[in-house]
Amino acid sequence: EIVLTQSPGTLSLSPGERATLSCRASQSVRSSWIAWYQQKVGQAPRLLIYGASSRATGIPDRFSGSGSGADFTLTISSLEPEDFAVYYCQHYGDSPGTFGQGTKLEIK
Amino acid sequence: QLVQSGAEVKKVGASLKVSCKASNYSFSSYGISWVRQAPGQGLECMGWISADNGNTNSAQKFQDRLTMTTDPSTNTAYMELRSLRSDDTAVYYCARSLWSNYFDPWGQGTLVIVSS
Questions:
Q1: pLDDT of A7 higher than 90
Q2: 3-state SS of A45-72?
Q3: How many Å separate Cα A85 from the centre of its chain?
Q4: Residue B40 CB burial class (10 angstroms; 0-12, 13-18, ≥19)
Q5: Strands A103-107 and B8-11, how do they pair?
Q6: Does the pLDDT at position A95 exceed 90?
Q7: CB proximity list for A67: less than 8 A, separation 6 or greater
Q8: Neighbouring residues of A57: CB distance < 8 A, sequence distance ≥ 6
Q9: If you count DSSP H runs as helices and E runs as strands, how many of each does chain A have, helices first?
Q10: CA A104 to CA A38: how far, in whole Å?
């Protein structure tokens, strides 16, 4: 089973700053099988990125995904107040899939 | 859109059944994944069921306690978890997905509290 490790655990930034979130897999994976989700308090997760770099419908272009092999990154180019949440990466190549432990993005 | 059944309180050793009603898409063209989230914790994949033929795939830790079914006549998926323990206390989510694919959209979640 592939294990995903996200870093940092918590990221403290201010609105307008750039956020870079990391997701490392325990072995090389196909980039087409990596997704990113955003979860706000009391809400269900929302798909942001699939296939490592494709934005889901309705997702602003300040969100971008990149990476290959075992290292993947979610970048938020300029943080908006509504972006402060928990972010999870997912590997979905082996059903039922696995999630990283999450990165909490908090307001500094 | 996926709409789940309401919150439940269960006793240790009991069974749980959560429903997930789909709308505004062709139900049989996708599957349903089930994910849970314990209080203050991350997301845990439980399993997946095809809404086309009922094929299922469960995470190993749930294989002996988890049953997933669908009712195509009502576009509803069900997740049953047996022999509940206190550490099954969690919010349970359903999400639309194809086999080995991303999850989108998600249901609103069902809070389940297991107490002794």
A1: yes
A2: CEEEEECCCEECCCCCCCEEEEEECCEE
A3: 11
A4: exposed
A5: unpaired
A6: no
A7: A23, A31, A34, A52, A53, A73
A8: none
A9: 0, 11
A10: 10
Helix H segments across A1-108? none
Who among A94, A96, A99 is closest to B47 (CB)?
A96
Render pLDDT for B23-69 as a digit per residue (tens, 0 to 9). Answer: 999 999 999 999 999 999 999 999 999 999 999 999 999 999 999 99
B28's torsion region: left (phi>0), alpha (psi -120 to 50) or beta?
alpha
Are the CB atoms for A78 and A17 separated by under 8 Å?
Answer: yes
Q: Is the confidence at residue A93, as pLDDT, over 90?
A: no
The residue of B32, B43, B60, B91 whose CB has the most chain A CBs within 10 angstroms, and thus the best one to mutate to test that interface, is: B43
d(CA B42, CA A85): 13
Give the rounded percent of residues in chain A with a pLDDT score beyond 70. 100
Contact A44/B97, CB-based, under 8 Å? no
Residue B2: enclosing H or E segment and its boundaries? Answer: strand B2-4
Tokens 């999450």 found at: A102
Considering only CB atoms, B102 lies closest to which of A90, A94, A98, namely: A90
